[in-house]
Write a sequence for this structure.
């Protein structure tokens, strides 16, 4: 089996260190490039222009060169430390350094494509010294613009040794999340969760119908509610069957809720001790299922465990 290839964005923060450790746990046979970005170097030119009021050009050139070398050297040291951490955790890892003239996430995406990475892993946030990348904005840029799976790990992820929880809503992005989970997490157990909302019990018109005087109307609404539930259960099982086709041991859960979908996913992940949550970027399924665009964004900000966005 071809090992998973990961680009690990590393800035030395607690969430970046957690990303290294959890990536090693989720992808034990992976190959990784641990990359640190020396960012902010482009801003030195602007600073130099402003400094010409008080300093000579020779002094400015010397200072800019020293600051640039200092930023690059720090990035080298960070990348080496991150690669050693990954190696100690059992991943075959090597270190790389890049300088970023613009947004660091753009440099990370280019590097991931260059090494033909299967996914990018990063922390949720963190600020280093000497123009180090700010992974809060970087993780957001990667999720929205990388065009590949991104694993985002919080600084203090919950202990978890359970299945991978895949949020499913029958949409194309959610289906892609299923196949992504199967391709990069082979051999793991999976739980496919379909969150649905009753159009009878959780809408004003549905509740009005249910409270109607005629028994026939109440029977019809109960029957419709049963059809919604049955459809959700079938969709959940269809998702689990798709994962099983790709080689994972999967089971399905259809969960009815009138509250926020994110809360249901997080609560279920906690109950199941999920090792990670896998979610598509956007999409709407049938039977009033979750809109995974907003759900994926909310999970990235609130999850207490790694979130893999396909």
């Amino acid at each position: 089996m071809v090992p998973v290839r990961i680009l690990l964005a590393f800035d030395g923060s607690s969430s970046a260190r957690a990303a290294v450790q959890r990536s090693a746990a989720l992808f034990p046979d992976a190959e990784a490039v641990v990359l640190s970005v020396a960012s902010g170097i482009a801003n030195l030119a602007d600073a130099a222009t402003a400094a010409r009021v008080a300093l000579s050009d020779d002094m400015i050139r010397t200072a800019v060169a020293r600051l640039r070398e200092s930023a690059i050297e720090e990035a080298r040291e960070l990348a080496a430390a991150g690669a050693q951490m990954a190696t100690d955790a059992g991943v075959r890892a090597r270190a790389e350094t890049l300088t970023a003239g613009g947004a660091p996430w753009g440099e990370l995406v280019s590097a991931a494509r260059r090494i033909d990475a299967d996914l990018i892993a990063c922390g949720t946030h963190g600020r280093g010294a000497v123009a180090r990348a700010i992974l809060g904005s970087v993780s957001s840029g990667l999720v929205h613009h990388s065009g590949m799976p991104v694993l985002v790990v919080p600084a203090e992820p919950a202990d978890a040794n359970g299945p991978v929880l895949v949020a499913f809503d029958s949409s194309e992005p959610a289906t892609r999340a299923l196949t992504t989970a199967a391709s990069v997490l082979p051999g793991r157990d999976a739980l496919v969760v379909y969150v649905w909302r009753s159009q009878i019990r959780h809408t004003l018109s549905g509740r009005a119908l249910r409270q109607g005087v005629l028994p026939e109307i109440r029977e019809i609404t109960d029957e419709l509610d049963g059809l919604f539930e049955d459809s959700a259960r079938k969709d959940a099982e269809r998702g689990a069957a798709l994962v099983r086709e790709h080689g994972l041991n999967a089971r399905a859960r259809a969960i009815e809720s009138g509250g926020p979908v994110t809360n249901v996913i997080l609560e279920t992940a906690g109950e199941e001790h999920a090792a990670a949550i896998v979610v598509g970027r956007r999409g709407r399924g049938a039977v009033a299922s979750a809109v995974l665009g907003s759900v994926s964004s909310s999970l990235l900000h609130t999850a207490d465990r790694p979130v893999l966005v396909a």
